[in-house]
């Protein structure tokens, strides 16, 4: 174990949200055209369902409801906000708000995982 170091990679909430959105399009096939069929209102409800981990908001069949841990749910919520924003052609402010929440969680995790006396700058 001696001589081994752990390298911490800095990533922010918007990067995680955009990566999830790309995954949704490329892997799941949830393209902008598909999203337009559902409409922004449904996408926003789905985002809220994941953001608050509350099935009551979920606009689709229970089989599609797949919550995970808090951070993963927030990332999914942010990606759904992006999808809704693409449909509405708006500014993306909802996704940015979730990204800030994710950044806070990542900062806390970094503090916990960084050994005493070490900084992320080294």
What are the key terms here?
mainly alpha, 5 helices, single chain, 122 residues
Would you give an account of this structure?
There is one protein chain. With 122 residues, the chain is an all-alpha fold. The chain has one domain. It has five helices and no strands. The longest helix has 21 residues, at 93-113.
Largest sheet: none
Compute the CA-based radius of gyration: 17 Å
Mean pLDDT: 82
Count of individual beta strands: 0
Question: Low-confidence spans: pLDDT under 50, at least 5 residues?
Answer: none
| Helix residue percentage | 55-70%
The helix count comes to 5
Question: How far is the first residue's CA from the last residue's CA?
Answer: 20 Å
Q: Give the SSE string.
A: HHHHH
How many domains? The number is 1
| Percent of residues in β-strands | under 5%
Structural class: mainly alpha
What does the overall shape look like?
Answer: elongated
Topology, pairings included?
Layout: H1 13-28, H2 32-38, H3 40-52, H4 70-88, H5 93-113
Helix pairs in contact: 1-4, 1-5, 3-4, 4-5
């Amino acid at each position: 174990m001696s001589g081994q170091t752990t390298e911490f990679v800095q990533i922010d909430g918007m990067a995680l949200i955009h990566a999830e959105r790309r995954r949704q399009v490329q892997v799941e096939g949830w393209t902008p055209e598909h999203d337009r069929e559902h409409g922004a209102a449904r996408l926003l409800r789905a985002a809220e369902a994941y953001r608050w981990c509350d099935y009551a908001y979920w606009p689709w069949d229970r089989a599609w409801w797949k919550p995970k841990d808090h951070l993963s749910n927030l990332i999914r919520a942010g990606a759904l906000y992006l999808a809704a924003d693409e449909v509405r052609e708006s500014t993306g402010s909802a996704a940015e708000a979730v990204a800030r929440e994710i950044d806070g969680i990542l900062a806390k995790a970094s503090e916990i995982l960084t050994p005493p006396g070490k900084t992320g700058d080294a």
